[in-house]
Amino acid sequence: MKPVKVGICGLGTVGGGTFNVLTRNAKDIARRAGREIIIEQVATRHPNPNVDTGTVAVTDDVKNVYTNPEIDVVVELIGGYTIAKDVVLGAIENGKHVVTANKALIAVHGDEIFAAAEAKGVSVMYEAAVAGGIPVIKAVREGLAANRINWLAGIINGTGNFILTEMRDKGRDFADVLAEAQALGYAEADPTFDVEGIDAAHKLTILSSIAYGIPLQFERCYTEGISKVTPEDVEYADELGYRIKHLGVSRRTERGIDLRVHPTMIPVGRPIATVDGVLNAVMVNGDAVGDTLYVGAGAGAEPTASAVVADIVDIARGYDAPAHASVNHLAFDKIEDVQVLPIEEIETAYYLRLQVEDKAGVLASVATILSERGINIEALIQKEPKSEETKAQIILLTHKVMEKQMNDAITAIEALSSTVGSVTRIRVEHLN
Ligand SMILES: NC(=O)C1=CN([C@@H]2O[C@H](COP(=O)(O)OP(=O)(O)OC[C@H]3O[C@@H](n4cnc5c(N)ncnc54)[C@H](O)[C@@H]3O)[C@@H](O)[C@H]2O)C=CC1
Ligand SMILES: N[C@@H](CC=O)C(=O)O
Ligand code: NA
User: Fold this and answer.
1) Which of 5, 85, 103, 203 does the annotation list as catalytic?
2) Is 245 a catalytic residue?
3) Where is the ACT domain (predicted)?
4) Can you say whether the dihedral through the CA atoms of 163, 166, 167, 169 is positive or negative?
């Protein structure tokens, strides 16, 4: 059978990994694809010391790749919204299939890209864009195709999980662990995308679109980062039997879709709570299958390349099939425009930590504020001041309540003369 020829744009962490995996495992890959996959050309701005490109043609102009008549599949591994978008749309325009790991591009410009691909009868595949090497796009779109998805929740940023794990286990400093994640190639070009939850929000947007059959709505995803998580909260979470994870959560409710990324306390008994380091984990609950869990490396050269190459293999396997036979993003005419709930309308449990003057009646005032708003307390710890300079602390876990009621309660607690500073709030998910 005729080989499939690939052009790789970007030879950094993921591009380099993809080149090496395609080369090293060429025989196994050809057996699975039913034909040989040949790297025809590479475009890069910087050479990669971990890659020997041998006799493969290398250019610094991506246009040479996406207009190359020899190339069947263009693999976009540059990142960002500008050159990457030119590459993807240029490839589609030239009748080529596309594989990309670029979640930012898909989450923000996916609708335009998928429409262009559909018009041209080509595929756009992006397994590497969500949870790196874990085949979670395939699991949700194909493996769980029979189900009405009720909810999904995931640790979907490797850099963030690496930082939280190292802070908790080794007491390391946030900035120091972030620098290591960057050196290991896990972080985005702009690492605020990782620590402020933007990257996770891109991924949650994509996964939720497939899970619920809704448009890509990145701008409606509530996003909160991990940069304000303190070692104190990590310690109290442990004491209460929880772990703090940077979680993407989406849920189908009668009022709309709940779509959010934020630091989250999860009971240690839930398997996702102990998924550490650069690993990602995604739980998906479907009405027929119940709970399912997918775990694996969420970032890094070869784990991500594993997903990129799997997409190339899928394209190669179906290469002679008609375009409609390939599994693309969603059938456009079947997309439902269900509303995404504003954060004030979501329901969840909460962890609250407040610093108070160490005097009689403080606890009672806080309890009254909560009970007047129908908020039930599930657990409570009171910590005496550690020294004369520090304050007493009250740590609370509540039952589920609507966020706007909790906002109102926090405002009232902060207005008490006994409360010092602002209240720390972390949402709690039991994942059931
Ligand atoms: N690093 C990771 O673990 C993961 C990254 N991704 C995504 O994969 C994509 C690539 O990320 P990395 O490999 O980490 O980035 P990187 O910064 O390591 O590599 C980018 C590559 O693009 C090349 N490049 C930049 N501008 C260019 C231009 N104008 N023309 C030709 N080449 C150009 C650079 O020379 C470099 O080879 C991004 O979309 C990222 O979000 C997805 C999953 C995991
Ligand atoms: N920066 C991302 C890379 C993979 O998507 C992460 O850390 O998860
Ligand atoms: Na994936």
Assistant:
1) 203
2) no
3) 351-428
4) positive
- The minimum-distance atom of ligand 2 relative to the CA of 128 is 5
Q: Could you tell me the distance, in angstroms and rounded to a whole number, from the CA of residue 92 to the centre of ligand 3?
A: 22
pLDDT (mean) for 180-196? 97
The one-letter code for the residue type at 177 is V
Q: How far is the CA of 139 from the centre of ligand 3 (A)?
A: 9
Geometric angle at alpha carbon 341, from 335 and 342, rounded to 5°: 135
Domain boundaries, given as residue ranges, for the chain: 4-132+302-334, 137-298, 346-428
In sequence order, which residues have a C-beta less than 8 Å from that of residue 84 and are 6 or more positions away? 76, 78, 100, 102, 105
CB 130 within 8 A of CB 310: no
Give the integer Cα–Cα distance in Å for 370 and 364.
10
pLDDT digits (tens, 9 = 90+) for 259-282: 999 999 999 999 999 999 999 999
- Specify the higher pLDDT residue, 323 or 12: 12
CB-count burial class (<10 Å; 0-12, 13-18, 19+) for 82: exposed
Q: Which atom of ligand 1 is nearest to the CA of 307?
A: 43
Residues shown for the chain: 432
Spatial distance between the Cα atoms of 243 and 161, rounded to a whole number of angstroms: 11
Any idea which fold 4-132+302-334 has? Rossmann fold (3.40.50)
Q: pLDDT tens digits, residue range 92-150?
A: 999 999 999 999 999 999 999 999 999 999 999 999 999 999 999 999 999 999 999 99
DSSP-derived pairing of the beta strands 222-223 and 242-253: unpaired
Helix (H) or strand (E) holding 164: helix 158-170
Q: How confident is the model at residue 75 (pLDDT cuts 50, 70, 90)?
A: very high
In this predicted complex, what is the ipTM? 0.99
Using alpha carbons, select from 133, 153, 147 the residue that is nearest to residue 14: 133
Which CATH code is given to the segment(s) 137-298? 3.30.360.10
Least trusted range by pLDDT, from 131-135, 182-186, 360-364: 360-364
| Domain 346-428 grouped into CATH 3.30.70.260 | yes
User: H or E segment at 4?
Assistant: strand 4-9
Tell me the three state secondary structure of residue 379. Answer: strand
pLDDT at residue number 31: 97
Which of 21, 42, 44 has most ligand 1 atoms within 8 Å of CB, for mutation? 44
